[in-house]
Amino acid sequence: MSDNIQTSALVSRLNDLEQRLTVREDELDIRKLQHLYGYLIDKCMYNETVDLFTDDGEVRFFGGIWKGKEGVRRLYVERFQKRFTYGNNGPIDGFLLDHPQMQDIINVQPGGEIALGRARSMMQAGRHKDYEGDAPHLKARQWWEGGIYENTYKKVDGVWRMHVLNYMPIWHGDFESGWANTPPEYVPFPKVTYPTDPTGPDELITDHWLWPTHKVNAFHMKHPVTGEAMIPQRWQGDIDRENAKKG
């Protein structure tokens, strides 16, 4: 083998290794971003949470879409901060809101500027009996929540940011009675958009559901072995709901 061929092969191998290393570093950076998101909303640091997003980012949450940086701020600061912590940007005594971030799968897309990710959160939340407020949602209670993220991330000026945070809560359960007794719409879905609702979403999502309805959140990736889309078999519950809509 000539020196030129050997050099060309070495350069090709180095370029391949550099590309693979860049992808792995991007995956780690995105995991850090997602986990930091969990830590920030744990402690109700909503201003810092908003800063994780791109200017054209959005949040898909509980049947609504909050669009752009202003929409994201409307959700986290105007809605969550005022509702949960009386407007304080940070934790308050007696209020718990833990969001462990787990099972994250990150796939950086060709070009290296966009990535897709799937992850899980299982939240423990509650308000202590000694720190009740006057409104119904400020009364003492303790509950669980499990949900799935299917997020989009974007690299801006070399830094990965949240672009679309697509979080769908799957199930809830009061600590005392458990998820076997959860009513169908444990948390009411938004019915009104902004600006009629000053902190509401810009758009409503029609295909939303909560436990005990049980479906699969669509996977952004294909099966790693077969290369096929991972789509569950339809079951009678889906058919019944479709027939009910037609009727």
From TrEMBL:
Keyword Oxidoreductase among record annotations: yes
Q: Molecular function (GO) terms listed? A: dioxygenase activity
Keyword vocabulary terms for this entry: Dioxygenase, Oxidoreductase
Q: Which SUPFAM superfamilies match?
A: NTF2-like
Q: Which domain of life is it from?
A: Bacteria
Pfam families recorded: SnoaL_4
**Entry-linked InterPro entries:** NTF2-like_dom_sf, SnoaL-like
All copies of domain SnoaL-like, residue ranges = 25-164
Oxidoreductase recorded as keyword = yes
Q: What is the protein's name according to its record?
A: Carotenoid cleavage dioxygenase
Species for this entry: Novosphingobium hassiacum
